[in-house]
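ok, trying the design again with the full structure, not the truncated one.
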């Protein structure tokens, strides 16, 4: 009887932790999963949750230089993938749901790899990360079993792989958010560097799945980002791709042509 009670208590604790994690914003999940990670010699250099290759390219301008995934003659964009065999059936369901969500919203089709040269390799590496855009050959999308297997984090990392950066690094972000540099952890300030992004004619989106929460990388609990001109706007609480995320994706890959 005692063992059954202890087992029930343990199960309730696990369920409570998972419920709390589901309530976190996508940015909070990413920051928590990537906190204090020391990556091995065979892992890439990672800035925030963006992996950087040897050329140092890490921004949307690469999408204008051949980093988009190619469109097929049928008008669809096929992105081959391989999933490592260390995930549980529940984890695979979450990942697959994230992959499939793009086919419902755009011309992107994530398909199991057969013999294609370029593909994404989804594995449980150290933390959550992805390269930005298509690099060529195999490129890792890391969805760590410890902290990254959520619908919104899967969508977030796949959007990186398709060529998108974080909303707070947009070229026009200073018109929409105030970066409070004094509140940011010193060696995390690079997460707020502006990038010459391709915004696809869409407005700044506080509800983008690529927007971090307002205290991201704070050193004192105070906001690192304040929306302007309305300081009361809620930011970084998306649980899935927003309509603007979808529109950008469709426009970048010319899904409607």
């Amino acid at each position: 009887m005692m063992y059954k009670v202890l087992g029930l208590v343990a199960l309730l604790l696990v369920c409570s932790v998972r419920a709390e994690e589901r309530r976190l914003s996508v940015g909070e999940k990413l920051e928590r999963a990537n906190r204090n990670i020391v990556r091995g010699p065979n892992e890439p250099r990672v800035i925030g949750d963006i992996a950087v290759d040897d050329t140092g390219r890490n921004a949307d301008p690469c999408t204008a230089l051949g980093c988009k995934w190619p469109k097929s003659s049928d008008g669809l964009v096929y992105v081959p993938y391989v999933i490592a065999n260390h995930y549980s059936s529940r984890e695979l369901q979450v990942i697959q749901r994230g992959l499939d969500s793009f086919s419902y919203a755009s011309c992107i089709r994530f398909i199991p790899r057969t013999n294609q040269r370029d593909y994404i390799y989804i594995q449980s590496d150290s933390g959550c990360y992805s390269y930005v855009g298509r690099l060529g050959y195999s490129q890792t999308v890391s969805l760590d079993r410890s902290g990254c297997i959520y619908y919104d984090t899967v969508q977030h990392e796949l959007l990186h792989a398709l060529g998108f950066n974080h909303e707070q690094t947009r070229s026009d972000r200073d018109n929409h958010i105030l970066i409070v540099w004094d509140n940011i952890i010193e060696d995390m300030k690079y997460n707020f560097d502006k990038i010459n992004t391709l915004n696809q004619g869409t407005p700044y989106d506080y509800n983008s799945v690529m927007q971090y929460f307002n205290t991201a990388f704070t050193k004192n609990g105070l906001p690192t980002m304040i929306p302007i001109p309305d300081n009361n706007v809620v930011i970084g609480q998306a649980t899935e791709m927003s309509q603007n995320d979808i529109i950008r994706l469709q426009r970048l890959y010319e899904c409607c042509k």
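Keeping the full-length input from now on. Residues 2-20 have pLDDT under 50 and may be disordered.
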